[in-house]
Amino acid sequence: MKIQGLLAAALLVVSGAGGAGAQEQAGAAGSAEEGAKVFNRCKACHTVEAGKHRVGPSLHGVMGRKAGAAQGFNYSDAMKKSDVTWSPETLSKYLEDPKAFIPGNKMIFAGLKKEDERRDVIAYLEKEGGAAAAGQKAEVPKSSK
Ligand code: HEC
């Protein structure tokens, strides 16, 4: 009995400390792997392949790019005139509540209310989107088409 009690107490301490540490780590960077799952909700309208637009523009290289700047996509005026540059910060605000951040934009999406989901999908976009680093996007060479 006594030993069981001690074990339970030890387990509590271990899981408590581990949990907080793990959460902090995820918080710092975001997980591109988890973000790939979140991105399933964007796939109806977006790809991360360069130049491949659907209902929404390709998100290839979106990090560090001006809003409304993907070639060959017909953006709303609101998006084109927003004067936003996509960074982890602006993306997080936009994805939390697209309509509030850029009123009049035509992305029909309720928003990702959970901060960790936003962080993860942003990490995914950084990784898959072809940008070298936030704010320092290398120009993607245009194909001959
Ligand atoms: C129902 C379709 C739809 C869904 C779902 C959707 N989007 Fe969009 N998204 C759009 C459209 C349409 C636009 C262009 C808006 C405009 O021009 O006003 C857009 C624009 C964007 C932009 C700005 C791109 C640029 O080139 O400036 C980002 C970033 C973005 N979406 C990310 C996401 C992410 C991440 C998700 C999933 C969490 C998502 N979207 C879900 C349709 C969608």
Could you list some keywords that capture this structure?
145 residues; mainly alpha; Cytochrome Bc1 Complex, Chain D, domain 2; 2 domains; globular; binds heme C
Shape: globular
For the biggest sheet, the summary is: none
Radius of gyration: 20 Å
| Proportion in β-strands | under 5%
CATH class of the largest domain: Mainly Alpha
Number of strands: 0
| Average residue pLDDT | 81
- Figure out the total of helices: 6
Which segments are poorly predicted (pLDDT under 50) over 5 or more consecutive residues?
Answer: 10-27, 132-140
Share of helical residues? 40-55%
Structural class: mainly alpha
SSE order, as H and E? HHHHHH
Number of domains in the coordinates? 2
CATH architecture of the largest domain: Orthogonal Bundle
Q: Whole-Å distance between the termini?
A: 75 Å
What is the CATH topology classification name of the largest domain? Answer: Cytochrome Bc1 Complex, Chain D, domain 2
Q: Can you list the ligands bound to this structure?
A: heme C
Tell me the CATH superfamily of the largest domain.
Cytochrome c-like domain
How would you portray this structure in words?
By secondary structure, the protein is mainly α. It folds into two domains: about 1-25; about 30-130, Cytochrome c-like domain (Cytochrome Bc1 Complex, Chain D, domain 2, Orthogonal Bundle). Helices cover about 45% and strands about 0% of the residues. The protein has six helices and no strands. It has helices at about 1-30, 30-40, 75-80, 90-95, 100, 115-130. The radius of gyration is 20 Å and the shape is globular.
